[in-house]
Amino acid sequence: MMLKPIDLTIAVLYILFIFVIGLWTGWQHKRSIKGKSGQAYFLAGKTLAWPAIGLALFATNISTVHLVSLAQSGFDTGLLNGNFEWMAAFTLILLALFFIPFYLKSGVSTLPDFLERRYDRASRDWLTVISIISAIVIHIAFSMLAGGIVLKTLFGFNMYLSISAICVVTGIYTIIGGLKAVVVTESIQTIVLLLGAFIISFAAFHQMGGWQPMVTVLKENAELEKLSMLRSSSDPSGMPWYAVLFGYPVLGIWYWCADQTIVQRVLGAKDENHGRIGALFCGFIKILPVFIFILPGLFAYTLSQTGRLDLQSLGVNDQGEVNSKGIYALMITQLLPSGLIGILVAALLSGLMSQISGALNSISTLVSYDIYKRFRPQAHDEQLIRAGKVAAVIAMIVSLGLLPLLNKYESIFNGINDVIAHIAPPITCVFLLGVFWKKASPMSAKLTLWIGSVLGIVVFTISKYDLESFIGKIPFMVMAFYLFVVCLVLQISLSFLFPTKTNIQRHDLYWKNPLDALRGPAWKGVGNYKFLSILLFTVICLLYALFH
Known about the structure:
- By secondary structure, the protein is mainly α.
- The model has no long low-confidence stretch (mean pLDDT 85).
- It has helices spanning 5-33, 38-43, 50-61, 64-77, 83-106, 111-118, 121-155, 159-208, 211-220, 241-257, 260-267, 272-285, 289-305, 327-335, 340-375, 381-406, 412-436, 442-464, 476-497, 504-507, 529-546.
- It has a single domain (5-308, 327-537), classed as Sodium/glucose cotransporter.
- It contains 21 helices and no strands.
């Protein structure tokens, strides 16, 4: 498809608009703080309010990967992958209630810094390395890949040149403006992304003639299970209900509560309440992706079954099935008129740019505070900022180099979660026990991170080289739970073998009673974090009751 002038104009103007807003925000922020402060650059001077935190959390999480791959999953398996969106609300409640108070009270700049205060320096170093690698692979490279595939499929652009150009634009305002520029641009990009998703959802809904015609087609094809979120153990998807129930929390707690790229937005909060409400606000927004990212893919499937969507241009895969990777691009070209296509391109770019900017900022922070400052403890703020900027440039170059390797996954979304499932268990274990169990010791945390990570790499390698005969064919969500249980037993055992020594600072970094988390300062009325937590929990449970 050739991009028409109006669509190209919208896309180019959008990129320029975000670029200017990012630079202007960073410049204004520098003037307001009257100098270059490390905290102001990396944590926005701790001035972020809850709406910006919530929108930025969502924007950092949602990328082009979600727009493209969730539509693909909707086409292939129905609403099943919506579990990754709705289950996230439960982990965001955990973040708001139990983790945010410690992170803000301790005054840390990074999560590895928190881990050192709770355990030791070795734990901090290991998490720093894992966090930087995961930010490069999961948050940047996979997002670049998804964006490049769409731009190439839609408009015939060279994938590497187009992605490189967008990365340069995003990198400039991110590196110059710091977290303040990232959060402001992410807030705008969230709105644009949601607008684009609503447009394609309405177009698919309208073309199908509504909800009931879609249900009728599924019933005629004996595929009503595509409307179910929780599947039986015999479901061919490999993600039954128990895998979601036990496996997702392992992935989700690492991603939402212990991943620097995500939690950095919370670390920049004005105060505890703004951090908590921002996280819960994101939890409410996470309800939407099932309806505006996944459901359009399901509508595309039923439209193709009735002949109202032509799939010939997609081709078939090695199994003779429709190659659904390009279903989102196909929907854009066949369901939308010129002009609206430009808005969808802007939405795709929003997802790509927000993901890259958020990850670059977190990498800068990690390298500056957890690596550079370790070897140069007397480094002043300007040196830390300079080190962070250099790290961001290197991270972009490395991410571009990884694109050919990551392009082997049939589903990019599943590829991301497959990687997370093998690196998350030891980190989730160490953070959970560290926050909730007094006896979790430094030696136990260090060894659990080391052994658990190596075990995850071994299992991942076995699954990728068709050596499953050693362990059997286990779905990655179930494997994540098994690895977590191993890490849990390991750390508890090691904590008794190598008990913790008295440390006054460490004494304040775990909940002596979980109910203490609910005794923190709270706003009155509907802004009370306890009320919003209960409301969000109830809404998600009701949604699961409707789509079980």
